[in-house]
Design a protein that fits this description.
Largest sheet: 4 strands, mixed
Bound molecules: uridine-diphosphate-N-acetylglucosamine
Distance between the termini: 6 Å
Number of helices: 14
Shape: elongated
Structural class: alpha/beta
Helix content: 25-40%
Strand content: 25-35%
């Protein structure tokens, strides 16, 4: 199994190209199930989660052609063979549940395994189920699978979500494009990946209004057609690399970065003494003077501070002057990186959903273990600031969401390499 070895203490200088968003691609790919005609995605990220979604779609009979080293994906659902999303694939990735809405909409049936336990909390699917039932679906849980049918097709409805779930909003949005009449999603999630999905669906012929606001209105149509769509920039990869020069010193320009994608995060960086400047090609980041200062952070739904940047921010606050309080409001168990950061000399107390971080002058390299995707990258970032060598093992988590992390960071001067360890 591979490990990543980071030697801290080298200032960074240069440009990092930010990839297309994993979480956008993972909802854009199943959108192909809504049409017989091909969907072409450009600016797709090269990640193992994308391969998992490809395998899932192929198991349903979707043809997936990967071009330009994976940057272009052509998907075609003209010869579907199954409407069952098997546990063996779904258990690897929760986003597999995003086939439920499109399968129900076009095939009026779907059997989708429940994702099962997940390292960062219970992550149930009740919001998805309640919403699709409001649209006329009948859904039953049998042997760990959701068996869903919509005899005569889904019907437009008013669909209030008890919580602005990203996945549930995406499932309902896709399902509603082919439902009869009008669907109104209330308390919809507003994440940029949902806006991107709406743009793509519109290119396919869907009638949608209000994406990016809490109320999305969808007028169902009879069929959707072919489209070509560029995947939006990955705001989480962007935020992650924006932090790199804060740990290591120097200046990094994130190419393709946009402030509107990371507004609340950039505001926290500013408060912590980090300069974020818009350039013609992206965002440039450098410390204003020396170590960052403590800031309090609470994760929220978009446009609030993203939970997917919480681990990276915690790592940064470990090196800040003063004490910061971090509150995790989206997932109930998302501080698994804290004990690993403590192994590197961090001073963190965790109590329930609150972490109190007392900044230390220096972190120290140590062997650490990645426990989930964002936790693993937070340990790499911490390694950039640490004295000596940090060895991050179990990097398969990292490969789910970051393409060529060691190449991107070494191109700006970091001492980082991937080593194969048995
Ligand atoms: C998506 C992102 C993930 C991100 C998360 C929150 C993808 C592929 N993944 O995940 O990276 O961390 O948004 O920004 O886009 N919940 C329920 N019932 C449901 C659905 C969700 O209780 O039916 C709860 C979850 O347990 C969790 C919270 O709602 O505590 C947020 O989940 P949700 O917004 O649905 O996240 P995902 O779509 O799974």
């Amino acid at each position: 199994m591979d490990s990543i070895v980071v030697k801290g203490g080298t200032a960074l200088q240069g440009k990092i190209k930010i990839a297309g968003a994993k979480n956008a691609a993972l909802t854009l790919m199943p959108a192909t199930l809504l049409s017989e005609e091909p969907l072409t995605l450009t600016n797709a990220p090269r990640l193992s989660d994308i391969q998992t979604m490809t395998a899932l779609l192929q198991s349903l009979g979707v043809e997936v052609t990967s071009m330009q080293d994976g940057k272009v994906q052509v998907l075609s659902s003209h010869a579907m063979t199954s409407t069952t999303a098997d546990y063996e694939i779904v258990r690897k990735m929760r986003a597999s549940n995003l086939v439920l809405g499109p399968l129900l909409a076009r095939h009026h049936q779907a059997v989708v395994s429940l994702p099962g336990g997940c390292a960062i909390g219970a992550r149930p699917m009740d919001i998805h189920v309640t919403a699709l039932e409001a649209m006329g679906a009948e859904i039953e849980l049998k042997d760990g699978y959701l068996h869903a049918t919509a005899k005569g097709g889904l019907k437009g409805a008013r669909v209030p979500l008890r919580f602005a779930s990203v996945g549930a909003t995406e499932n309902v949005l896709m399902a509603a494009t082919l439902a009869k009449d009008t669907t109104i999603i209330e308390n919809a999630a507003r994440e940029p990946e949902i806006v991107d999905l709406a743009h793509c669906l519109r290119r396919m012929g869907a009638q949608i209004e209000g994406e990016g606001t809490p109320t999305i209105t969808i007028e169902g149509v009879d069929r959707l057609g072919a489209a070509t769509h560029p995947v939006v920039t990955d705001r989480i990869e962007l935020g992650t690399y924006m932090l790199a020069p804060v740990f290591a010193g120097g200046e990094v320009e994130c190419i393709g970065g946009r402030l509107d994608l990371v507004q609340s995060f950039a505001e926290k960086l500013d408060a912590a003494g980090v300069a974020v400047t818009e350039t013609a090609d992206g965002l440039k980041v450098a410390r204003k003077n020396g170590r960052p200062t403590a800031v309090d952070v609470t994760t929220e739904v978009f446009p609030g501070f993203p939970t997917d940047l919480q681990a990276q921010m915690m790592a940064m606050l470990c090196t800040a002057k003063g004490t910061s309080v971090l509150e995790e409001k989206i997932f109930e168990n998302r501080f698994m990186h804290a004990p690993e950061l403590i192994r590197m000399g961090a001073d963190i107390e965790v109590q329930g959903g609150t972490a109190t971080v007392h900044g230390v002058e220096r972190l120290k390299g140590a062997p650490v273990m990645a426990t989930d995707l964002r936790a693993s990258v937070s340990l790499i970032l911490a390694g950039l600031a640490a004295e000596g060598e940090t060895v991050v093992s179990r990097v398969y988590h990292l490969d789910r969401g970051y393409e060529h992390v060691e190449e991107k960071l070494s191109a700006v001067g970091a001492k980082i390499e991937r080593v194969a360890r048995s």
